[in-house]
Amino acid sequence: MAGCVSQAAPSEPWLQNVSIVGVKQIDRIVEVVGETLKGNKVRLLTRNRPDALLSLPKMRKNELIEVLSISTGCLNNCTYCKTKMARGDLVSYPLADLVEQARAAFHEEGVKELWLTSEDLGAWGRDIGLVLPDLLKELVKVIPDGSMMRLGMTNPPYILDHLEEIAEILNHPKVYAFLHIPVQSASDAVLTDMKREYSRRHFEQIADYMIEHVPNIYIATDMILAFPTETLEDFEESMDLVRKYKFPSLFINQYYPRSGTPAARLKKIDTVEARKRTAAMSELFRSYTRFTEDRIGEVHNVLVTEIAADKLHGVGHNKSYEQILVPLEYCKMGEWIEVRVTSVTKFSMISKPTSQPEDDDSLVPWNENPWYMVIYPLLFLILLLSTIYSVDRFISPGFVEEWLPFLADTETDPNNDWYMNALERDDVVFYE
Ligand code: SF4
């Protein structure tokens, strides 16, 4: 096991018989796997050692995307959080190492997107006398033409100090206009109980500034519902915030107590009530969309970096990090393509290249093409009838008569009354 939970609570009963790789021991994974395969139980949990080198060899899930962790730990002490117990205080990777890692990924390994991650992106540098914009300004210098950078999750408190510089970075042509700011609750009382160190007003200040200064910015957020002290009024405030901003991505988490955290000692909200709140917010989220019908016909440049789950489209993103699906036959992974939106869904827009004629039906997914809705059933019917005919003619004579009498050709069936009567009357002449 690896990760925050096993690091923070290794004595949990379900972790007793497994090897554990602590969050500061990831560079020793080969050793741990080797020993475990020999039947030994290994538990490397000490945090009293430096973080693993950024340059450790890695296998990318998507070879076009470099996921770069810029720091470990954070400066907060949220009362529900287990991660803090595992990862501890903020440790920022040095600026020069991060820039070199990004440079090598882009220029030597051919990645097309750089995703910055950490527990709290906004806090980067505070432990080494720097701030996030210092890093971002250096990183954009090593992004080659045709590649992009995406910022990761950032809590409100620290980016509040740098709104102007962050907006400037998000407007850079090689940076997605995308921000993930986890608000968790819109009630100041709940935020205080969570020890989040900001208020609803702070969150709104950031969101409003970015909406005003970064055209078409895409703001994602997270909500924790049914935190132990959340009243119905508090919950309504969170619903109200979602109604106000209509976040295109909203991660809804029903509160779950993590053992050893301060919040876990509080009395839980009734499970049925908690589920009701989760369902209500999920329904609200489903009720609106960023991708409205009036966007059909829009033209976008998208960078395609992966294949969609339907295996029929490539997944591309425009400057605002909106997901735009492009028919796979026109995609070249890692390249930009100009497309026109042909239809919309809750989470994405479907498109076709502007280089293709607008009425080219071959670009419409088969299950949305009205012609295929007629042709496929017809082909199926023809196939079914030919199979029945073959069975009746060559494999099991009399099959149709016995099992599908409504299909039997009574005019030529030698067993029908007319035929038998004709034979008896000698009306039938056989020719040799
Ligand atoms: S939830 Fe709070 S304490 Fe936990 S990692 Fe995030 S910022 Fe840190």
Automatic annotation (TrEMBL):
Chief localization: endoplasmic reticulum
Span of domain Radical SAM core: 60-295
Record key words, sorted: 4Fe-4S, Endoplasmic reticulum, Iron, Iron-sulfur, Metal-binding, S-adenosyl-L-methionine, Transferase, tRNA processing
Cofactors, names only: [4Fe-4S] cluster
GO cellular component: a single term: endoplasmic reticulum membrane
Catalytic activity: N(6)-L-threonylcarbamoyladenosine(37) in tRNA + (sulfur carrier)-SH + AH2 + 2 S-adenosyl-L-methionine = 2-methylsulfanyl-N(6)-L-threonylcarbamoyladenosine(37) in tRNA + (sulfur carrier)-H + 5'-deoxyadenosine + L-methionine + A + S-adenosyl-L-homocysteine + 2 H(+)
A Pfam family matched in the record: Radical_SAM
Domain TRAM: 293-355
The EC number(s) this enzyme carries: 2.8.4.5
Protein name as it appears in the record: tRNA-t(6)A37 methylthiotransferase
Species annotation: Caenorhabditis brenneri (Nematode worm)
